[in-house]
TrEMBL record:
Function description: Catalyzes the conversion of the 17-keto group of estrone, 4- and 5-androstenes and 5-alpha-androstanes into their 17-beta-hydroxyl metabolites and the conversion of the 3-keto group of 3-, 3,17- and 3,20- diketosteroids into their 3-hydroxyl metabolites. Exhibits reductive 3-beta-hydroxysteroid dehydrogenase activity toward 5-beta-androstanes, 5-beta-pregnanes, 4-pregnenes and bile acids. May also reduce endogenous and exogenous alpha-dicarbonyl compounds and xenobiotic alicyclic ketones.
Metabolic or biological pathway: Steroid biosynthesis; estrogen biosynthesis
Gene3D superfamilies on file: NAD(P)-binding Rossmann-like Domain
Coiled coil: none
GO molecular function terms noted in the UniProt entry: 3-beta-hydroxysteroid 3-dehydrogenase (NADP+) activity; estradiol 17-beta-dehydrogenase [NAD(P)+] activity
Pfam families per record: adh_short
Protein family: Belongs to the short-chain dehydrogenases/reductases (SDR) family.
Record's catalysed reaction(s): a 3beta-hydroxysteroid + NADP(+) = a 3-oxosteroid + NADPH + H(+); 17beta-estradiol + NADP(+) = estrone + NADPH + H(+); 17beta-estradiol + NAD(+) = estrone + NADH + H(+)
Entry-linked CDD domains: Mgc4172-like_SDR_c
Source species taxonomy: Eukaryota, Metazoa, Chordata, Craniata, Vertebrata
Name the record gives this protein: Dehydrogenase/reductase SDR family member 11
Length: 255
């Protein structure tokens, strides 16, 4: 990770869970990390922790709603003005609503598409443009996907969410192909975890918290730090190595 010291990483959805763990880990490894989320107060607390622990890097909080394109564009403009641009983009932000195909609300479907697919794509586009205009040829775009991006679980509440994650799988491979066509050495990687013990399920089942609790208690789940370790592994790969996708499951997870 020495080659990334002092360079700029953007981590979306950095306030809690996987995103917070990734942001903290990259700051620990000496990167200048812009962590964005709608709830910036939690990132500010995490940034203070990074200072208290004496990390060689820094965490810079930025408030951004990834369902609003104008806010994403403003964030990248701010990063360019304040920190020159983005060298690593971690598209971590994502959300789910229990909206089945047969009886779900279209508003929930649209929000999932706006954040999980469109927001991710806008961040990818802006990160690439930032690298290109500065002649950065060793940048990296990492999409935090899900095992749901590779198989459809028998759970109606998650079927539309699963569709957005299949889109992330396709977008990551499409990005890899476009980067090759552009004759750049910028790399694209997908990390697809199974059950991770975060606030995700509690947000999904905010009116039925017992469902979330039961899911996390049924097996020993992955932790946010496990995903952060995978991100560091990907970024530490030699320049000639393209890691396409990492699928991670708890040992006890059946599907």
């Amino acid at each position: 990770m020495d080659c990334w010291k002092g360079r700029v990483a953007l981590v979306t959805g950095a306030s809690v869970g996987i995103g917070a763990a990734i942001a903290k880990s990259l700051a620990q490894h000496g990167m200048k990390v812009v962590g964005c989320a709608r709830n910036v107060q939690q990132i500010e607390k995490l940034a203070s922790e990074c200072v208290r622990y004496g990390f060689s890097g820094t965490l810079i909080p930025y408030k951004c709603d990834l369902s609003v394109e104008e806010e994403i564009l403003s964030m990248f403009s701010w990063i360019k003005d304040q920190h020159h641009g983005v060298d690593v983009c971690i598209n971590n932000a994502g959300l789910a609503f229990p909206e089945p195909l047969l009886c779900g609300k279209t508003s929930g479907w649209k929000t999932m598409m706006d954040v999980n697919v469109i927001g991710l794509s806008v961040c990818t586009h802006e990160a690439y443009q930032s690298m290109k205009e500065r002649n950065v040829d060793d940048g990296h775009i990492i999409n935090i996907n899900s095992i749901c991006g590779h198989q459809v679980m028998p759970n109606a509440d998650g079927h539309f969410y699963t569709a957005t994650k299949y889109a992330v799988t396709a977008l990551t491979e499409g990005l890899r192909q476009e980067l090759r066509e552009a004759k750049t050495h910028i790399r694209a990687t997908c990390i697809s975890p199974g059950y991770v013990e975060t606030e995700f399920a509690y947000r999904l089942y905010e009116h039925e918290p017992e469902k979330a609790a039961a899911a996390y208690k049924s097996i020993k789940c992955l932790q946010g730090d496990d995903i952060a370790t995978a991100v560091v592994y990907v970024l530490s790969a030699p320049p000639h190595v393209q890691i396409g996708d990492i699928q991670m499951r708890p040992v006890e997870q059946l599907t």
